[in-house]
Structure formats: structure tokens, C-alpha cells
Amino acid sequence: MNRLPIEILRYILREATLVQGGSSYPDEVDELEQEKEALRRINDSMSIKCAISLVSPCWHTLGDEFLFEIIHISQQRVVRPLVGVLRRHDENAAPRGRWCRHLIINLRHYEIEWTHGQATLWGLVPSCPRLEDLRCFLYLSIHPLGPPHQSTRTLFPAPAVLLQTIASVQASRLRSLHFGEWVEISLDHATNLLSHLEDLELCQFDRLVDPSSFPREDFSSWYDHTKFNDDQYPLNEVEVQEYEQAISVARWPASGRPVNLPNLRIFKACTFFPDFGKWHVPSLRDVTFGLSHDYEWESESLAIMQRALIPHSSHITRLTCGSGVPALWNILAMLPHLEQLQFQLHDMETAGTPSESHVCLQSIVFRSQSHWFEGDLSVALTNIQDHILSLPKLKTITIEGNSRVAKQERLAERQPMFAELGVFLTVAYNVDLSW
Predict the structure, then answer these.
(1) In the chain, N or C terminus with fewer CB closer than 10 Å?
(2) Contacts of 265 by beta carbon, 8 Å cutoff, 6+ apart
(3) E strands along 147-298, which residues?
(4) Do 396 and 431 form a contact (C-beta atoms < 8 A)?
(5) Interhelix angle for 411-420 vs 374-386, to 10°?
């Protein structure tokens, strides 16, 4: 076997260690099951990769490329030893971290250290200079010995130095970027970061904040840099050195650059902002957003959405709305090429009359969190039924909720009515309605 050409051995190793769905990021930002299954296969594949690396010295050398290409971290205690391995040089005098393409940090623990290590994600970002996919999920769970009903909402603010490090190290290759719900990012810093990631195809910020739009005290958890007391946290000398070095050189590679993302297809953020309309995103198809501020008048939220979305209306085909969005027919009027629309029922006005026909919409998804919104659902379904001629391509209406919603609304009685109109009405149970 060892006499085979290196190219043949590498091909064998590639086929033996290939993880279906693991060498790419999720195609849809809301397909949670798709991502969970891929992560399970990634974890299962590690035993195969480790076994192959022990076959022979030749296989061990070739195996580094596949052993480190996908790294999924679920325990913080393994980070520092892993960083040491990634920085160790192989037989070619090159660090092993160069093989890493997908870095997934998924920490769920009652104690997560977010001090000096935050500047570089504990050294992981500079140790993996050729990343294509970076995902960071931090969730502070309840201590097993704590009060049984204790709750926590601890945030992990991302300092400017972390985003500047990502922009400096990963700008030429990163295609997918996702910061989870408890990693808080300033809109200004996020915009600066994205202006340097021109190859990005998927971007998801689950907690994006705009301090300039609100009183400073509303975002007291957000900051640029923090000085840590030596007696408050156990010090890791390597992390302290990395932190001080990162702080000393922290700057954006170039300032004042416009956001130019020619390959961006999917963008998700928990809040929206008018300057999104100034971005150059010709490939954008899928947008998810909410409005974090409760506007007194619908005209205010409508104006923000118009400035943000109308410049991209010729190519957006899928929209998922969070809280604070304007009326259904107003959204359809500003996005004439929309094919799929999904929103939380209690957050959108579904009455009213369409100003014109929408000839592209094929699917509507209502998310109803409880039976208390049964009146809203009834109004929405009746309104769509009354104006079905304005939606000639509509094929499916899906209601995501629980069995009580379906029972209260007597959806079984409505299904034949919509079927006669060529629309399939269905209910999906037990979905994640947290966002």
C-alpha cells in the first residue's frame, strides 16, 4: 500500500474520511436539523480519521490534511492543547492549522472564560489561517448544583479586536460566518468586518446591536476593550501575551471601505438597519431579520425596510421576518420577486388590501407561538382567502405551532376551501419558535 503514488493514497484517504455535508456550511440558515445531522457525522468521522493516521508514518503525514480540516469544539478545556497542536510544524515545516477549513466552536457550559482569550478566540483564529467556515456559539448553562429554576441570560460581547483579527487573518478565504445568539456584536464593527470578507456567501449574526440608535446604558454589556484584573481571573500566560499583542496591533486592514459582497446569498440578523440598502450584494437571495426597536408608527418600520430592501428587491426570493415588521401586503409590494415568506403571526399585520397582484409568491409560513393568537390566524387566513386572486402562484400555506393552534382554528375545515383554490394548507408541530 505504501508503494502507491502519493496522489493515489491521498485520494483513498479523501474517500475514506469524507463527511457528507461536513465540508460545506448549511444551505439554509434555518435548517437546524440539517446542521445537527452534519455535526453528528463530523464527530463520528473523527474515530475513522484517528485510526487511519496510525496505520503508518506515511499515512500519518498524509492524514493531517483530513484530520484537521473540520474542527468541532464542545469543551473549552481542550482549546489550549488543540491550539498547541495546530501551531506545531509538520515534516514540511508548516503549521498543521493550515489544513483547517471549518471551525465550529459550540460551548455550552456553566463556566465559559471570556477574558483575555476573547481577542483571538483563545488563539484559534490565527492558528487556522485558511478558514472557509467559522461558527461560534457560546451559551452559559445553569450550574448543576445551582437553584433548580435559576435562569441566565449572560452575553458574550465580541470586542473590536476579535473582529479585526478575523478581518486580518481570514479575509481572503472565509465563505461562511455565524455568531450565535449570545455573542453580541456591534453593528459598526460588523459592517467593518464584512467590508473585508469579499468572498462571503453566508452571514448570520444572531445578536447584532446598534449602540448609536439607543441610550448607551441600554447596551452596557457591549464594549471595545476591557482590562482584566489579575486577581479576578486565573491567568493563562500564553493567552495574556496573545491578548496584549492583539490589542497592540488591533486595527482594520483598510478603513472606510464599502460593503462589497458579490457572492453573499444568505444574510440573517436579529435587527435591521437602513444602510443595508447601500451594500453591494447582487447574489443575495435569502434574508432573515427583525426590528429590535418598537416603533410607535408602522410608517417608521416600513421606511427602514424600504431603504434596506428595495435596492435588492430584484433578487431577494426568500424572506423570514422577526419582530416589529410592517404589514403583509406592504412587504409583498416592496419585494415583487419574493417566492417564500415566513413570519411570526403576532408580529405582523395581516389585514388590509393588496395594492396589486404578486405573481411570484409560492409559499407562506405562519409561526404561531400559542393558541392565544388564534384570532390573528383566523384574520390572516380569511384575508388571504379573500384576495387569493392577487396571489396566482401561491401553492402552500404552512402554520408552525402546536396541536392546540390547529384545534382552535378548525384548520381541518379550512383545508378543503383552500384546496379548491389550489393551495395546500398544513400544520407543522413541535418546531423551534425561539427566534
Answers:
(1) N
(2) 201, 202, 283, 284, 285, 286
(3) 156-157, 176-179, 183-186, 202-205, 208-209, 266-269, 286-289
(4) no
(5) 10
For the cut 80, the answer to whether the pLDDT of residue 94 exceeds it is: yes
Listed residue (395, 328, 390, 336) closest to 360, CA to CA: 336
Contact 386, 351 (CB under 8 A): no
pLDDT at 435 exceeding the cut of 50: no
Q: Cα separation of 335 and 1, whole Å?
A: 59
With vertex at residue 36, the alpha carbon angle to CA 33 and CA 39, rounded to the nearest 5 degrees, is 150
Instruction: Name residues whose C-beta falls within 8 Å of residue 252's C-beta, 6 or more positions apart in sequence.
Output: 164, 167, 192, 196
Dist. CA 417–CA 414, nearest whole Å: 5
How far is Cα 435 from Cα 430, in angstroms, rounded to an integer? 14
SS3 102: strand
Q: Which residue has the higher pLDDT, 52 or 313?
A: 313
Residues sharing a CB contact under 8 Å with residue 420, sequence separation 6 or more, in sequence order: none
- The dihedral through the CA atoms of 321, 324, 329, 333 has a sign that is negative
What residue spans of 141-184 are helical by DSSP H?
Answer: 160-170
230 pLDDT tier (thresholds 50, 70, 90): very low
User: With bands split at pLDDT 50, 70 and 90, how would you rate the model's confidence at 433?
Assistant: very low
Contact residues for 416 (Cβ-Cβ < 8 A; gap 6+): none
Sheet with 156-157: strands ordered across = 156-157, 183-186, 208-209
Helix, strand, or coil (residue 407):
helix
pLDDT value for 147: 57
